[in-house]
Design a protein that fits this description.
The complex is a heterodimer of chains A (393) and B (366).
Chain A (H helix, E strand, L loop, with lengths): L16 H34 L29 H33 L5 H14 L4 H12 L10 E3 L3 E4 L2 E4 L1 E4 L3 H29 L5 H19 L4 E4 L2 E3 L2 E3 L2 E3 L1 H28 L2 H9 L4 H31 L11 H13 L2 H30 L5
Antiparallel strand pairs in A: 1-2, 2-3, 3-8, 4-5, 6-7
Helix pairs in contact in A: 2-7, 2-10, 3-7, 4-7, 5-6, 7-9, 8-9, 9-11, 10-11
Chain B lengths: L17 H9 L4 H27 L18 H13 L7 H20 L2 H24 L15 H28 L3 H16 L2 H15 L8 H27 L2 H9 L4 H31 L11 H9 L9 H30 L6
Helix pairs in contact in B: 3-6, 3-12, 4-5, 5-6, 6-7, 6-9, 6-12, 7-9, 8-9, 9-11, 11-13, 12-13
């Protein structure tokens, strides 16, 4: 005689989703715990047998190697900890230059997609399709080994007005040396910027209240130029140019930009610029055409339509993509190690790791720095995104 | 009676249809436009003839050694002489059929899965895909199946780029899907583990991961284990790719209407039935363009492997450039060739991606 279940609540305990999820998680935790136990015990055993000391004491010992380029004072007598700092600053330098230039290039390319001119449109498409489909490392090699190394030597340097020189050893720019009174000029610049911000606020308020428009752009431009120039004249030019001069076989004085930095910045700019250009195109295209028609029908001029209607809406699509492009640019700057630009990766994971053998500490420190950079970019771009995101009232 | 006599129709105005109109609208529509056109034309006229002359007309096409490059154009003899290395690395010449066989199997599996019906695809091609990396390893190495052993030191060239990218994405596909599921899951431990994995492998430069693979991974294994270099690279590429695939799948999950889950629940489907039968097919369909874009990124990133000393196509090129018989400065030709090879593959895939995108995009146009 068969017995029927008395009620439906008599399901097996392992079929209860809640109990099941607890079981799954216990299994997952145990598996992960065992995995990490294996790794840690293996690593400790391996380190002991190879005689590797763990810990961060190596950061205080003398590095004993030179670095091609440094933004802070550095020579072979400084510590390994200092090499970490030098590397971070060099990474920040190349990333900042490339992010600024790639954004400019990208926006120009992106806007060119909507040009009336067929040639400009086609060139923009060719640019994007060419450079985003070629590996970045190859582009770096091309600029470094094929273009920059075929530049003339120091004595046959290419020059612009005998002030800027370009040769196989790098780019030589004049340097601006500030004297004591320069502080007044800086203060005047800050004053001008604050002034522009105030004028803009006042103009917007007035337009909201009365509908009268104020020529903000020409006035701001005039303020930004006139006030610092006035300060320059009043303080009797507290700046001096230092020009690069050919001495012996090379130039000295001024600012020297090493070819590794030039090659890396050019290729990062061109590569990321192609991606940003595509993002800008997608952003502008995502704004429905009805928006333009509506703007025309209320009598806005074409330039105002672009500035007030299209761009703010396109930015909502563009900003998240910009965020990920900036992050990948910073990560891609590690390719510097292929041509020897002394960024964090080349200096720290390359030379310092080779000399000290502290693989785990160094790799984790480096990864942490890149994760931190990514987080900073993410936070900044999210703040910006909040500003451009749709405000629903 | 007067009848209506239509006057003969006039031809369309010269400036509103046809070639001239196209020129007027697209090149000379306004004064700045005309100036831009003239400016670009002048630049192109100055640059292009010289470039094509170097590339094609004065180039050296036939010969064996560097001395055959007598004309001042490009020296394609260089590419010709090294073409085997560029594609196969130093794999033994008489064993090349194994590499070709693997490539053909890969191509047939990819193409085949597009043309067979759904049943055959799920029963035969999906398992075949998952088995393919292991079959290829058996075939390429050879020592386990009685062929002449070829260690991974000899594998190289562009075929290695293809194999590494394909083998990584085949494993990363299910793994990334699992991580994406974990990220959406209600279980706090599974969710946090997935988030940490995804964010770590996406946030760290792939080069740092490669270094981790080559200097740290050996420390993780028991003493005396010798892990092959390519195996370590494969592990790293797979994990890196899984992180990106998980984010792609997450985008796909977000695009699926909540009603699909509710309908599946209402039918009484269990979690895995719901996921595999209802959600996964839709997620794959929606995220196909992004999957391809991610694959293009992975494929370009395989060139980074030259930095850790894997003989893929770019490091083969560097080696050829520093060969003592070919020191005539062939960097332009070499890089242009490698760029063209990568470009064709990547551009082809992005074309496929955008055609799928167009097919899926059924919203009304602007």
């Amino acid at each position: 005689m068969s017995v029927l279940p008395t009620s439906s609540s008599q399901t097996a305990f392992y079929n209860n989703p809640q109990i099941r999820s607890v079981i799954y998680q216990v299994i997952l935790t145990l598996a992960l715990g065992y995995f990490f136990y294996l790794i840690v015990s293996n690593t400790l055993a391996n380190m002991q047998s190879r005689g590797i000391q763990s810990g961060f004491a190596f950061l205080d010992s003398t590095a004993g190697f030179d670095i091609l380029m440094s933004l802070i004072p550095y020579d072979a007598t400084y510590t390994y900890g200092r090499t970490f700092l030098v590397g971070i600053l060099n990474t920040i330098l190349v990333s900042t230059i490339s992010i600024v230039l790639a954004t400019i290039v990208g926006f120009i390319i992106g806007v060119s997609f909507f040009s009336q001119n067929w040639l400009i449109r086609t060139l923009a498409r060719i640019y994007v399709e060419t450079f985003r489909n070629i590996p970045l490392l190859l582009q770096i090699f091309f600029w470094y080994f094929a273009v920059l190394s075929s530049l003339p030597g120091a004595r046959q340097s290419l020059s612009i007005g005998e002030v800027i020189f370009l040769n196989v050893r790098g780019l030589y720019l004049p340097d601006l040396i500030a004297e004591a009174a320069a502080g007044y000029v800086y203060a005047a610049m800050a004053f001008a910027i604050v002034g522009v911000w105030l004028v803009k606020r006042w103009a917007k308020k007035r337009q909201d209240l009365t509908g009268q428009q104020f020529p903000v752009f020409p006035v701001s431009l005039a303020m930004l130029i006139v006030i610092p120039v006035l300060a320059l004249v009043l303080t009797d030019m507290p700046f001096q140019w230092e020009f690069p001069v050919l001495r012996g076989f090379n130039y000295s004085g001024g600012i020297t930009v090493i070819p590794e930095l030039i090659a890396l910045a050019i290729s990062l700019t061109i590569y990321t610029g192609a991606f940003i250009g595509e993002a800008v195109r997608a952003g502008v295209q995502s704004v429905p055409h009805g928006q333009t028609e509506a703007a025309r029908s209320i009598g806005l001029k074409e330039r105002q339509i672009m500035k007030l209607i299209i761009v703010p809406q396109a930015m909502r699509v563009i900003t998240p993509i910009l965020n990920s492009e900036y992050q990948s640019l910073v990560k891609n700057s590690t390719l510097a190690t292929a041509i020897g630009y002394p960024d964090l990766f080349t200096v720290f994971v390359g030379t310092t790791l080779n000399q000290t053998g502290q693989a785990i500490e160094i790799v984790f420190m480096t990864m942490a720095v890149y994760l931190l950079f990514n987080m900073i970019i993410s936070v900044v771009m999210n703040l910006f995104n909040r500003k451009v995101a749709l405000v629903s009232r | 009676m007067r009848t209506f006599q239509p006057s003969p129709s006039k031809p369309a105005p010269l400036m509103s249809v046809g070639v001239l109109a196209w020129f007027k609208n697209n090149l000379f529509s306004s004064v700045p436009n005309t100036l831009a056109t003239i400016f670009i034309m002048i630049i192109l006229a100055n640059v292009l003839p010289g470039f094509f002359d170097w590339l094609l007309f004065s180039a050296n096409w036939s010969g064996e050694t560097q001395d055959d490059c007598v004309k001042d154009g490009a020296c394609w003899v260089f590419i010709n002489a090294w073409s085997k290395q560029f594609f196969y690395g130093s794999y033994p010449s008489e064993q090349l059929w194994r590499v070709n066989l693997c490539l053909i199997m890969l191509l047939l599996t990819v193409l085949g899965s597009f043309f067979v019906n759904k049943d055959l695809r799920e029963k035969l091609f999906v398992p075949l895909f998952l088995a393919l990396p292991f079959i290829s390893i058996l075939l390429l190495n050879g020592s386990w199946i009685g062929l002449e052993p070829v260690t991974t030191d000899y594998w190289g060239g562009f075929s290695l780029n293809i194999f590494l990218a394909a083998a990584s994405i085949i494993v990363a596909f299910p793994m990334g899907f699992l991580w994406a599921l974990g990220r959406r899951s209600q279980m706090p431990i599974a969710r946090s583990v997935s988030i940490i994995l995804i964010e770590f492998f996406r946030g760290v430069p792939v080069l740092a991961l490669f270094f981790m693979g080559s200097v740290m991974l050996p420390l993780f294994f028991p003493e005396g284990t010798n892990v092959d270099k390519l195996l370590r690279v494969w592990i790293v590429l797979t994990l890196f790719m899984s992180g990106y695939m998980a984010e792609v799948f997450r985008g796909g999950f977000n695009a699926i209407p909540q009603g699909q889950y509710e309908a599946a629940d209402a039918l009484g489907l269990g979690y895995w039935q719901k996921t595999m039968l209802i959600i996964l097919p839709q997620v794959i369909k929606i995220s196909m363009p992004n999957i391809l874009a991610t694959f293009v990124m992975l494929f370009k990133n395989t060139s980074f492997l030259m930095i850790i000393g894997i003989f893929e196509i770019l490091s083969t090129t560097q080696a050829a450039l520093s060969n003592s018989y070919w020191l005539g400065g062939h960097a332009e030709e070499g890089y242009l060739f490698v760029a063209a090879v990568f470009w064709m593959v990547c551009f082809g895939m992005s074309m496929i991606a955008s055609s799928i995108e167009r097919k899926l995009n059924t919203s009304h146009k602007n």
